[in-house]
Amino acid sequence: MDNVEGESNGSAVTAPATDKENGVATPQFGPRENYRIIKNIAILGFAFMIHFTAFHGTSNLQSSVHSDGSLGAFTLASIYGSLILSNIFLPVMVIRWLGCKWTIVVSFVAYMPYLAAQFYPRFYTLIPAGLAVGFGGGPLWCAKCTYLSVIAEAFSVIKQRKVKADYLIVKFFGLFFVFYQLAQVLGNLISFSVLSYGQDEPASHLNSTTAYSVVNISETCGANYVAPVDRQKSLANDTNLDLHRPDATRLNVLTGIFLACMAIASLSVAVGVDSLKSYNLGRTGSGSGISGVKMLVITVKQLANKYQILLLPITMFIGVEQAFIAVDFTASFVACGLGISYIGYAMISFGLANAFAAAVTPYITKLIGRFPMILATAVFHCALIVFMLLWKPTDQYYAYSIIVACWGLADGIWLIQINALSGILFPGNEEAAFSNFRLWEATGSVIMYATSPILSTFTKLVCILCVMVIGTIGYTSIEVMEYRIKRGAAGKRFEMIQQTS
User: Fold this and answer.
1) What is the distance between the alpha carbons of residues 310 and 441, in angstroms, rounded to a whole number?
2) Beta strand pairing status for 13-19 and 24-29?
3) Which stretch of DSSP H or E encloses residue 29?
């Protein structure tokens, strides 16, 4: 990808040689360049982990802490609404101007007003700050995905193509998401520690209130949860549930910690991550050598690709299911059944399961293949949703943790596989492909956030199930078409994962 980065990274690169596979001039890397690449992935993953420790730790509380007028839900909707516009208009242009590295740094800074607005949460502070997050999010994720895809190809060249670039893309995404998914663990651990310090456990409240019983939770929480605003006020008054807004001092301490995390993340990338100048391998991707208007056209034209169209439902599903966990599960299951202070406690399991999925997915995929892996995930997630529709919530902590951990396992697999597939299917057009991924993921999230104050949790779970089935069918169609291409032509566009070495 020419001109992806304009600055030098100082790595050891000698005169260009010819890549026998692609017939293009490529740089000859130094003997320790592979370690440098791993270092870049590690620092990038660490920075995203610290940054999204703050973002997830804050966002998971929005629908419960800022429930008046559904301010929290509408703030999250503004984030993903602006993310839609951001993914259409900004990524390829910003990456061309700043390069992947500095796009990430600047995008991190764009998140900080959202944290600062938590000190004075109003519609006129949180909504504009949420819009800034969305506008920074499009270039951020596109730059990250492009960075990982390009250095995966470079790593394959270093290994003299003994390891397929397709497999390395999946492996590098997996390594990155191990760090990234730990953000859920750290963010929720910090949130739980700060908000619950010195408070009684919810079980003591439950057992001391005669009017409040397990039967009552079963009838009002979980899939039966409706009308969040009025419901929360009613439940807080009648059943002693901990649904009131936590103490302002605790929230301010939490926000201060999270702001410091974002500052550390920005500095880590600025100082520790190399640019892509030495890794472009003579590639001419969608973001090189053309005007910003033409790059925008390429991003939009990507939607004409039949594979991109078939990926849209499953991409939207990822946005829908992540939004459900962030807003509806935390409010209708955890806050309703245990209390707001225990949202972080339950969501720690989600982060741990996400990290575990990120670590093992590349290896299991290599063993059994991508297609069986995704089908198995779809069946598992379907069974989990059906269980949640039928389950009667109780006051037992471990039940919520198990449910959200299972959801985290499935989410981690979806995220890695579909992200990697976007890089595998569209070589040379990664910016446009990943821009579309974030665009439609954000669209799914906006739909879920916008309907959160309107639809019951039961209805949302049914809708999630339907979108997942449609998305799995679309993905299966891609695999079938690629299988036919493999049988009918000598040269196909990407290898099935199980055939890589």
Assistant:
1) 14
2) antiparallel
3) strand 24-29
CA distances from 480 to 307, 325, 359, 454, 473 (A): 11, 32, 28, 39, 10
- Asked if 11 contacts 30 with a C-beta cutoff of 8 angstroms, the reply is yes
- Please list the helix, strand and coil fractions of the chain in percent, rounded to the nearest 5, in that order: 80, 5, 20
Contact 500, 366 (CB under 8 A): yes
Q: Of 273, 269, 284, 277, whose CA–CA distance to 29 is shortest?
A: 277
User: 449 near 78, Cβ under 8 Å?
Assistant: no
pLDDT tens figures, 140-169: 988 998 898 888 888 888 876 666 777 788
Distance in angstroms (rounded) separating the CA atoms of residues 29 and 262: 33
* Length of the chain (residues): 501
Where residue 206 falls among pLDDT bands split at 50, 70, 90?
Answer: very low
Residues 6+ apart with CB under 8 A from 20: none
Residues 6+ away with beta carbon under 8 Å from 462: 389
pLDDT tens-digit series, residues 469-479: 999 999 999 88
Q: State how far Cα 401 lies from the chain centre.
A: 20
From 116-125, 272-281, 296-305, 454-463, the region with the lowest mean pLDDT: 296-305
CA atoms within 13 A on the CB side of 332: 28
Strand partners, 13: 29
Would you call 34 helix, strand, or coil by DSSP?
Answer: helix
Q: Measure the CA–CA gap between 381 and 321, rounded to whole angstroms.
A: 10
* Helices marked H in 210-291: 214-220, 228-239, 248-272
Does the structure show a pLDDT above 50 at 446? yes
Surface-to-core class of residue 189, CB atoms within 10 Å of its CB (0-12 exposed, 13-18 middle, 19+ buried): middle
Q: Which residues of 95-116 are buried (b: 16+ CB within 10 A; e: fewer)?
A: bbebbbbbbbbbbbebbbbbbe
pLDDT at 162: 61
* pLDDT tens-place string over residues 448-465: 888 877 888 999 999 999
CA distances (Å), origin 99, targets 5, 12, 92, 127, 266: 4, 20, 10, 29, 15
Which residues have CB under 8 Å from 170's CB, separation 6+? 361, 362, 365, 416, 417, 420, 424, 497
Q: Which residues are CB-contacts of 124 (< 8 A; sequence separation ≥ 6)? A: none
